[in-house]
Amino acid sequence: MSLLYPTLYLPSITRLQPKQLERWGVRGLILDVDNTLTTHDNPQPHPEVLLWLEQMRSAGISMMILSNNHPPRVEPFAELLELPFTADAAKPLPKGFRRAAARLGLPREQIAVVGDQIFTDILGGNFFGAKTVLVEPIQLEATWFFRVKRRLERSILRNYNRRS
Fold it and tell me: Could you tell me the pTM of the whole model?
């Protein structure tokens, strides 16, 4: 399996169900923020996300946020969702994932990483040894950097979909 391929690809984080996590033996989630739980730089979660978080909590799934954003962006958002967080994570490097796993108190085999970017969330999660869930971004970014990155991701996803 390519380190760039997710374990599962979904249209939205809210489509990830506790039953799927149970089948994998996953007891904890490492969550990205921008375009996974909310739109880019939005201080409020996407409305359906709050219900999804409660569903995960009711199923006994531990969660935390791991973001490359700086603390002033991540901390108030994480507090609003009542989730622990690590900011400045330097994804896809393994340090942030190891720190998140330690905070969750779970081995990597019982963790899934959920995010909207192949080159940070999926690559980092796969390299760390966790299950990975790629979700479609809530809203596409307009900057040239993200447009280039999304174009590269589309090429990878075409190959991923061919093998599925």
Answer: 0.92
